[in-house]
Amino acid sequence: MTRIDSAKGAYDGPLITVRNLVKVYLTPAGAFTALNGLDVQVERGEFAAVIGKSGSGKSTFINMLTGIDRPTAGEIFIGRRPIHALNETEMAAWRGRNLGIVFQFFQLIPTLTLVENVMLPMELNGLYVNRRERRNRALSLLEMVEVAEQADKLPSAVSGGQQQRVAVARAMANDPPLIIADEPTGNLDSRTAERIFNLFEELVAQGKTILMVTHDDELASRVNRTIVIADGEIVNEYIVQALAALSQDQLIEVTRYFEPRTFARGETIVRQGEHGAEFFIITDGKVDVLVEQPGGNEMLVDRLSRGHYFGEMALIAGSLRTATVRAAADGEVSIVALDGVNFQNLISDSRSLREELGRIVDRRLLAYRVQALAELKVDQLQALIGRRPLDYYPPGSTILRQGSLGDSFFVIVEGEVEVVLDQVAGPVGGDEKVLERLAPGQFFGELALLGDSRRSATVRASGVGAKVVELDRAVFEELITSSEQFRMRLEDDAAGRQERIARHSAPAVSGDA
Fold first, then answer.
1. CATH class of the 16-234 domain in this structure
2. Which DSSP letter does residue 394 get?
3. DSSP state of 128
4. Regarding the domain delimited by 255-384, which CATH topology (the fold level of the hierarchy) does it fall under?
5. Angle at which helices 484-503 and 351-374 pack, to 10 degrees?
6. Domain ranges of the chain
7. What is the pLDDT of residues 185-242, one digit of tens each?
8. Helix (H) or strand (E) holding 464
């Protein structure tokens, strides 16, 4: 595919800045507000999807950016040009040189060949020296969209997908910095839609900025950013970021139930041990997540910022809060809250969100358990455990077996395990002895890393089963080196286990659980 280089303007700020945009239509039934104070910025080189239900205001928003319609109030700057202040003549001249538009129904002129359709914007705006130069550029653009062989055919002689690719080439004719595509794949089959989307990605990689109106959830999930419009207002982008697993309809519907709140610096939002009744998304500022330690001390286990969420653990498990969350000390925090009933409805309706929340819960529980053991700084903790998966063992299943070689240890994240010794002491061998039961936050398997690498007891999941994380020797040694708390805990637990094993074993048996 031939690359068409873009002439980049020298803009210091965002390519698009919209401030307090209002559009009111006068109808026989009275005034109708289509846009109600929109504020948004789009950076140069962004690929953004604009989504919203019919009647949400997204088409009106796009018409404001293209100059097809004019705002009742507010400001629109594109490349520092005040679009809202241009008259019709100025708008037409500006649009021809700075904006490319791709329509859902192609809008090619049926009596012109494909190459003539691409040449037309150049001729209307007096760009490029002569007809030969315009034709050469048009052919280069048609080569870019892979229809150069059809250049001299009329639109009716090629497929819909080819017509749409010609429409993209036409939008690029005058090398505009901004392309607005209104449902560009709405009338295409999935394979052709994918080719158009890939073409847009290549244009963005070359420095173009693209706003694409779409109802396609799959395509919307692949852009750099999603701008959601509901009831004439833009939905906070951090809500969109946090709930990216939802479909467009689910996302737009659930935003109706979020309640905005603000907390002063250091103010508690949720407290460990309380019943969980709400789910929270941070829209501005930061929060600290703290877990209470024995003796009443609090330990910082995480710091969350815009687009992150919290409160899901207690709602999913139907349990008490596992941590306290406070606004950070360096400033107030803004959040939106969703009540428990609507949260449950939300995860019932969205399998993808339910699975994503489950993964987040696992990662956070793991972080809390390891932090409780080692009391590390947040960045140390995250570097140490990364995105290690949790393994679930059903009741009665064996996690590790006595006598086997071992080069790792395990931390219990949820559930319970029992440590069992296959006895060899006494007149009859083969009996089992349960040495101890371990709960969340406890570990096992460490003695193999301290001794001869053989497991000296069997560990099985008990109760309702257990979720554990397996950590290798490198993590084990890092914890010993960097955490005095872990080292002291290790010494106490290892000594106790060795004593219990020795008490119930023949003299020849040693090792770990």
1. alpha beta
2. -
3. S
4. Jelly Rolls (2.60.120)
5. 90
6. 16-234, 255-384, 388-503
7. 877 788 888 888 888 898 899 889 999 988 887 888 888 888 888 888 888 888 888 8
8. strand 458-472
